[in-house]
Amino acid sequence: MRARYTKWGGKRHHGADLVYLGADEHGDWLGDPVGNQWSGGPKSFMSVTDNVLLVPRGRGMTAMFYSEHPEQAFELYVDITTPPAWDGDRVTAVDLDLDVIRRFDGSWYVDDEDEFAEHQVSYGYPSELVAAAEAECARVSAEIRSGATVLAMETAAPWRAVFRTLQSR
C-alpha cells in the first residue's frame, strides 16, 4: 500500500510503500521497513529502522513510532495534517508543516512553527485550516505531556510484533 503526503494545493511532499498491519481503536497501523525509501518531493530519506505508522481516523495527524538506533534521533514523530483519506490501498494527507517530536529520553518539542507561519501566507491556508492544525497540535502536545495511550510506545508494541512476524515469512 502507498502512503502519500502532499503540501497544500496538491504539491508532492513525500511518500512510500508501506505494509498494512491492521487496525485497532486508535486507527490503522502500517509497517515501514528498514531501508524503505521515502521520496517524491524535496525531502527524500531512507528508514534506518523498522517503524510503525499510526493513521488515526477522524484526526488531523499521523504518528510514526521509531525503533531505537544510533542514527535515529527520535522515537515519535507526529505530522500535523489534514485528516488522512483512504482510497483503496492508498492513504493521502496534506502535511501542514507542524510536527510534534518526542526523543528517546522523553523530551519533546513542536517543530516547524516558522514554516507553518510562512506557509499560511505563501500557500494561502484558509483560517479554518490554520485553526484545525493549531488545535490538533495542541491536542497532540497535551497527549504527549500526559502520557496518553494513543501516543505511547506500548500502544505501538503489538503492531511492531505483527510487522516482525510478517517480515519473517
TrEMBL record:
Q: Does the keyword Ribosomal protein apply?
A: no
Give the matching Pfam families.
DUF402
Task: Report whether NAD shows up as a keyword of the record.
Answer: no
What GO molecular function annotations does the UniProt record carry, in alphabetical order?
hydrolase activity
Outline the extent of the DUF402 domain: 47-147
Record keywords: Hydrolase
What is this protein's name? DUF402 domain-containing protein
Organism encoding this protein:
Pedococcus bigeumensis
